[in-house]
Amino acid sequence: MNNFQTILVAIFLAFFVVGVLIFSGLIDLDSGPGPDNISGKVVVWGTFPDSFVSTAIGMVDNNDLNINYVKKNASTYQQDLIEAFANGNGPDLFIISPDMIKRNDNFVYKIPYGTLPKESFRNLYIDGADIYLDKEGIIGFPIVVDPIVLYYNKDILANEGIVSPPKSWDELFVLNSALTKRESVGSGVLKQSMIALGQYTNVNNAKDIIATLLLQNSNPIVKRGEGGEGSEGYVSMLNSNVLKSSVSPIEAVLEFFISFSSPSDTSYSWNRSLPNSLDMFTSGKLAFYLGYSSELFNIESINPNLSFNVTEIPQIKNSTTKRTFGEIYAIAVNKKSGNLTSALGVANLLSEGEVAKEVSISSSLPPVSRTLLSDKPTDDNYLFTFFNSALISRSWLDPDKVKTKELFGSLIENILSNKLSMGEAINKAQGQFELLLRK
Fold first, then answer.
1. Which residues are listed as membrane-spanning (predicted)?
2. What is the Cα–Cα distance from 88 to 90, expressed in whole angstroms?
3. Among 35, 112, 395, 401, which has the highest number of CB atoms less than 10 A from its own CB?
């Protein structure tokens, strides 16, 4: 930016921060200055359907401001961004998830903490949104989160006299004998399953389920290094044991996960010959399904007659902190935007207040704003659960979601096939993570 642009952006951000602080209640005024100098054209890219953002954008659009949302194909989105930025025609704003942070670091305009302090950011958004804070500033303005929750078949539980779904993972070991049905005594063939764990290829969201278990065990998987360790300061924590437990978090998670696919184990409830876990659940043959809140409408459309409900994901027994994995979406600003001032204003408007509420309603995803989450929809159990799950959502600095999905798959398969011992498989995965972070 030239000197004039720098001064202009600084002036705008001063007004912007006042507006944010007023809205959050940190400044108690009847009214305050807002970003009324937003004008021109602002192009926004993302993978959300148009219906998720069209109404919200309409609330921001005015005679002086034209916001153009472009829906991109999720499978090519990152490459489209790289090519657009290289050619100098990238969008002013682009919606990102945590797995895009590392790969887009050079393209993002980061809001300095001198303008919007960390504490002010944290007062506005859920704790999990901290993933968008790095040593240089704020990477993006969080908008919605898609947490992993527990869907359960009400009829299967009722048939076995089970009043409520499990709150802790340990309860699964007690419930399994009633909920998993074999074709015959001693048979490895299953006609009904309690939960889909222990395999990888036919377990929907397997990577994110493992990530959830690691996060619940205080393993961040990847962290930002303080001394420039690794590429761009990212350090693999996959095989770390910060709490000095007798068994490392990754070992504990893998032992728990894999136990559900061992026919000789009392927790046996899944094998690789079964259909995909979503298909099993929607066909009424799976008691518990670990899925995203965004999967609700798909489940309903596949089987409108399925009697199911949703609750928070189980936690570690006696744990004092709740965690689930959540895909936390944010709006990032292109640092080379030709209309940087207006881009910043639009990003702010889409992440707070009535506009952010509209994005949440249109997408049926819980907001990231603490203010909006405080108004829980008590008359809708689905949304009530999603809102509560949003508050405990965490994510991780996934360097490449496609390659890490393969990496976790190889880790599980190496153990299941006995190609490698658990220790050897973990060490191999740790090495692969380190290489990936250096790219």
1. 7-27
2. 6
3. 395
